Amino acid sequence: MPAPSKATVLSSSDAVAHLASYQCLDGLSVKDLMDSRVHGGLTYNDFLMLPGKIDFPASDVITDTRITRNVVLRTPFMSSPMDTVTETEMAISLALLGGIGVIHHNQSPESQAAMIRAVKRHENGFIADPVVFSPGHTVADVLDIKARLGFCGIPITETGYLGAKLVGIVTSRDVQFESPATPLHEVMTTSLVTAPLGVTLAEANQILRSSKKGKLPIVDDQGRLTSLLARSDLLKNQNYPLASKNPDSKQLYAAAAVGTRPNDRERLKLLVEAGLDIVVLDSSQGNSVFQIDMIHWIKQTFPKLEVIAGNVVTREQAASLIAAGADALRVGMGSGSICITQEVMAVGRPQATAVFAVAEFASKFGIPVIADGGISNVGHIVKALSLGASAVMMGGLLAGTTEAPGEYFYHDGKRVKSYRGMGSLEAMEQGRPGASGLANGKPGSTKHAPPLSSKPHENAATTRYFSESSAVKVAQGVSGDVQDKGSVKAFVPYLHVGVQHSLQDIGVRSVLELQAGVQDGRVRFEIRTPSAQVEGGVHGLHSYTKRLYA
After folding, report:
1. Of 66, 152, 339, 420, which one is the catalytic site residue?
2. Active-site residue flag, 24
3. Where would a tag sit more exposed on the chain, N or C end, judged by fewer CB atoms within 10 A?
4. Is 267 noted as a catalytic residue in this protein?
5. Residues with Cβ < 8 Å from 540, sequence gap 6 or more?
6. Set 267, 349, 464, 524: catalytic member
7. pLDDT at 520
8. pTM of the shown model
9. How far, in Å, CA of 50 to CA of 32, rounded?
10. Half-sphere exposure of 223 (CA within 13 A, CB side)
11. Distance from CA of residue 451 to its chain's centroid?
12. Are 314 and 329 in contact (CB under 8 A)?
């Protein structure tokens, strides 16, 4: 091509102004990108987002997001209710880091309720229902609480109940080296620092700081115990500033999954008594009379409980659940790494298209959507958010972390943990009398598998796929293992900072600004051909090491 003459060369100073001569911005709008009649159904790998202008540091990016009508998180991260992903440790750790973990229900109702209680007791403002003992209790009772709930700073009242006169407190130092049969009145500390009923949380925290005590009992004018404050919670506030907390109780948010069968109503009652904030109705196909009836019942019975319904992938599915009263929708069918629903059932939808379609419809009614499945890196998280998701639900990305259930073992020389789909035959056999729980039927291949509950229970995997009455179980998931990822306390901060840097590259300062920019056409997209996907990954090397964070 010949060089332009001087007469046709524009002045460099006019470069920005000259952009106005183009009919549209570079790249595609989200509506052009997601036109299924032109491009078909898209996954996250099928497109990219175009960069914007950077005029702020990545640390300024705000990742706050609303995951239900009334619950806002500081980060858009949720863990999936799978029995190889989310139990107590994952739920607590993720909540401390600004997300939320959804505790699975492939276990007995009592076990699931105990996990909810552990989450709610982990961090508090004023502890309104502390464990209380009487002077007649023994050291063995304190050790039992420490083993089950993880703490042993326990106030002692005359009767052993909240509301009775405070007479002492027992700490870990008081019971060290003592016989389990020793009565608490022989070892308890009676010189106490207390605060009066009506003290503010800030004032109580200051008293706790200056007293250098581990616990601060709150008492009324007659010396009766009304609540408790813990020093450990002050440290958690300092170490975990993004923690997901109920603004009223200052406790960590707790979420759990249940099914849509009659027995699940009794299960849910136990969970609510334990302090549940959010319930996820766990079904592979959410548009069912079972789920609609369950939503109606929950809203009548527990009107303050937030309900996340699903799963859905179409506007029509979403409409049924929104009309029933859902507070949020879970989007995805067959897109998870261990899910074979699309292959076996010929039903589902590519995840990016599903998220966009449902989010576009649900947003008209103020209902947030959660992108569930298909998330394998930071880029996928940002793409899901750009298409309208308020948060992403992760299974495989968090499986293999220290906090995921199960034990590590070695497979082909690599340290791994079990990861299985809730539609796998192994998950469907969990909790059944005499079930082996072996993956692929191989002894020794599941030393990592979660232990069976102490007693048989209704299986969550079969109810999730409406197959509990089927004589032949048709698998919609597989069992496998994933490599050790270390602790979520290092991995999730990496995801958070990665999202911040991505939004900085796009030129937006928050998740809300990202979604507004997508809707008004300022944030642009580009389709990726198969060759472009190869080009965008590591290529042309003999060998390499891929370290994601340090």
Report:
1. 339
2. no
3. N
4. no
5. none
6. 464
7. 95
8. 0.80
9. 14
10. 9
11. 22
12. no
